[in-house]
Amino acid sequence: xxxxxxxxxxxxxxxxxxxxxxxxxxxxxxxxxxxxxxxxxxxxxxxxxxxxxxxxxxxxxxxxxxxxxxxxxxxxxxxxxxxxxxxxxxxxxxxxxxxxxxxxxxxxxxxxxxxxxxxxxxxxxxxxxxxxxxxxxxxxxxxxxxxxxxxxxxxxxxxxxxxxxxxxxxxxxxxxxxxxxxxxxxxxxxxxxxxxxxxxxxxxxxxxxxxxxxxxxxxxxxxxxxxxxxxxxxxxxxxxxxxxxxxxxxxxxxxxxxxxxxxxxxxxxxxxxxxxxxxxxxxxxxxxxxxxxxxxxxxxxxxxxxxxxxxxxxxxxxxxxxxxxxxxxxxxxxxxxxxxxxxxxxxxxxxxxxxxxxxxxxxxxxxxxxxxxxxxxxxxxxxxxxxxxxxxxxxxxxxxxxxxxxxxxxxxxxxxxxxxxxxxxxxxxxxxxxxxxxxxx
Length: 441
Fold this sequence. Notes:
This protein has 441 residues and is mostly beta strands. It starts with a helix and ends with a strand. Strands 1, 22, 23, 24, 25, 26, 27 and 28 form an eight-stranded antiparallel sheet that branches. Strands 2-3-4-5 form a four-stranded antiparallel sheet, with no helix packed on it. It is globular and about 60 Å long. It is built from one helix and 35 strands.
């Protein structure tokens, strides 16, 4: 048991990486000159990424080369969500042929064809969110604040309570209790504790009129919530933090200066949520466009060295498997694109084998009752995948036998087990890998 716990702790230490500033930014092939508003790493296969701006793009080689799937005057995309179990089922908001509208559409063929689900407003841009505990449930926010829910992966929709006066711009769902939701709006932050059936406002301790907020939850401590105040320059922006589910808030702007510009992106490192990135900047004035905190927002420092002098960062994504950071930049007259930052390692990224021995984080996590576990084998070999409880007792063997090189996955059903923390462990001649998962009821 002690050996198992030691293995778990050593893996947690390895996974809690950071990005040293001495590495360099590189612009990804196929993205130069393209303004980027969002980047999504496919959770079931980090080799696959999706990006959007004035076109929809996909990369299948960890972001080195990007291919345009859809481009044109009506494809300026805002929100993007990918079904974790179906890489071709994608939900997105994009400007329609009518310049005053902003549609929510769905594709089931990887972006080749799209089905319009809702016609929304250009401002606020529609929001699409997949429930982190149930991938079949999808939420869409259209108009000034109309919330819709689908429980069959976009097949049918139910309209929930309306926040039509709130002008909703962002939405997050608790990863441990999907009844709890937060909404960022023109007038502050709203909270729901009944899956969007009703809402109530939260006070951030400032007058939020004419200010917008982006939201992010700490995935390991979902009572910790971050809200960023978005500004057009008439009012100061900033970062606010709550550690009690939005009841009280404190300003976290040390190192950000006056920040009289838009905050356009907010991302937490899922393996180490104390590491946070925010994207900001303006198109005309040279300035810091990317900031980083390593202590939960207590202090911030510029992370822009190597990025364009002027512009803004509209998208940030962190790949914890390959220790890589992606940012989407809009910079005029040139410099827009996807920029990649690799931490310094003893092996160059391009030298990584096509199949590297790895164990992915299960999804969804937390879960009830079912989750997917995926791993990669670098060669054909004997493998065992087992589940342990918190005191080190093996409760189930998921698979055992000789497996081929490449990617494998299996579903784990936790119906017969109580709520709590569990570990799944992969054992092969290459070594032992382990990760943590949580069952909730």
